[in-house]
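Hi,

I'm pasting everything inline rather than attaching a file, because the server keeps stripping attachments. The sequence lines come first, and each chain or strand is labelled.
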Amino acid sequence: MSIQGLPRTSPGLRVTGWPRRSRNFLTNKSSTVLTAIAVAVIVGLPLLALFAPLPHDPFRPDTNAIGIAPNGIHWFGTDGNGMDVFSRTIEAAKLDLPIALAATALSLVVGVPLGLFATSGRIGDAIMRVIDAFAALPIIVIAVVSIKLMGGGATDVILAIAVVAAPRFVRLSRASAMTLRSARYVEAAAAIGCSPVRIAFNHIFRNAYGVVLVQATLTAANALGTIAALNFLGVGVKPPTPTWGAMINDGVSMLIRGEWWAAAFPTAAMLLAIASLNVIAGAVENKIERVERVR
Amino acid sequence: MIRYIISRIAIAALLLFGLVTLSFGLVSLLPGDPAVALLGEYATPADIARINSQLGLDKPFWERYFDYIGNTVSGDLGKSFFTGSPVSSEILTRLPNTLIYLVPGLLLALLIGMGMGTWAAYRYGRAADKTFTAGVSVLMAMPEFVLALLLLFIFYQQLHIAPAPLGMLSSVDIPPPRVTGSVALDAVIAGKWTTVSSILSRAALPIVTIGLFFAAPFGKTVRTGLLQVLNSPQIEFARACGLRPMQVFRYALSDVRGALMTYMVLLFAAALSGAAIVESVFAWPGVGGWSLDGVLKGDVPVIQGFVLIMGATSLIGYVLLDTLITLLDPRTRNTVLHAKKWHFGLRSPRQAATTRA
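And the predicted assembly:
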């Protein structure tokens, strides 16, 4: 959506400045570079954790090096147990990022078909009422309750986040389906006898996937934050395994004393990942806008 | 009009019923045994059976469900498995502690979001707008607990302005005599102004956390909404008539008011459900930290009570909001009352043909 036709002058408060071609405050070229960096971060961090040799064992505490500041040996310092913060920050990416992406994928797979078919009829209404009831529930609490009751492994976190995120996709794809199904080509498809499933996926979803894709990237960014919040609260993946949220929680007591590194570096890694996903979402949005303008 | 409001209340009552069922089902159907959680893993089967009959967990599923609904309707939310204190009175004493930082925090968010969003909309495409957009994306990428820790680090650790994150009262504060159960209210009633100011200074960082965290999405909504309105023909006309800028702004605002109010209620619900995070960072004795504790221990009545209260609060918020919007905005009144039923699903060819004809 671009904003057009701003009045050039006005008698009262002046609304000046012409609409720019690109809503992005960065120029096109540098935004491409930025997107490339963002993709590299999202793909590279887990790969790094999987394959690159870490300077220290992320699971073994070193009792001779408790809470030391960043130096040549421990690049990010060590935490209160004497574990290397750098190794743990990288190691955490192996778990945090895939969980966020898997949860997003799962909520996409569940939410989109529900939304596409919940447009009419009793069952559709019923689905929407259930979604409404879910929206009234406290999100974090649901996630915490379900993770806690299911046991607390990585798959349980994925399930819980997916449950929390799926309603968004139901709403979004439902809204698109509502507007698109009165389109001529949908009517034409129905007229030549296409099955509802074919219409829903081949005609409606194909014309609405852009919005869904943008939302999916934003959801993944959100999921990263939620997962970190859950781990911060002590719910989810069990302690010796490093996660950004749990590491930040461990670092709080040091932070209060002024020893910032144990909390700051995992925070920075998490924010970097979230920002990268947001950049990717912005890039996808721009791309879709451009495609639609050509149409 | 009245019919519409009544129908909203009826729907809310139905949803509330669904909520009770959901909060019961959520905890009862998922795996996990409260008796084992209570006694530890080395409990004998006899002990487990005894606890189960004490808690009423040995009854059949439907009987428990109807018992639960009956008790809930009469205001009895059960007793905590661990402390034995009634859930409803716990909520009543803790909810004010949460609201004492939540409501000012949201008001702060409203103030910042309104101001910055309006400014950015009026300065569309210029430096102020770009700064605003960049700031919003930075703030929106930051989870609540990170923001809280950042503020804590700056204002407590570095600048030594804020007090330590150790709860609502310091050890030297003498709790006021119990009147309402809420410490802050009791302190005001007892006239202990040193206690009140101590509470306020401890609430400052939570308030700023909530304020900044929710100002970003709210400001973004204000900016988007206002931009659309400012470009509309009616605002151009208002300007052309030579109305004063404030007058024009008021007209523009009345157009986005409904959407903004909706968003504010959504944010309130989100803030309430995220209270556990802020409260665990600042060790605040509110309803969020308490419920989190209950969840971590597997304290079923506490979880159910919290889910129910939070859900009910947001439902009541939605009903009030819908009513208020209908009262304020004449456009919604007509469309809502005489709304055409939209029944065009994925139509079969024959149906499509008949509607066309």
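Residues 335-357 of chain B have pLDDT under 50 and may be disordered.

If the labels don't parse on your end, tell me and I'll reformat.
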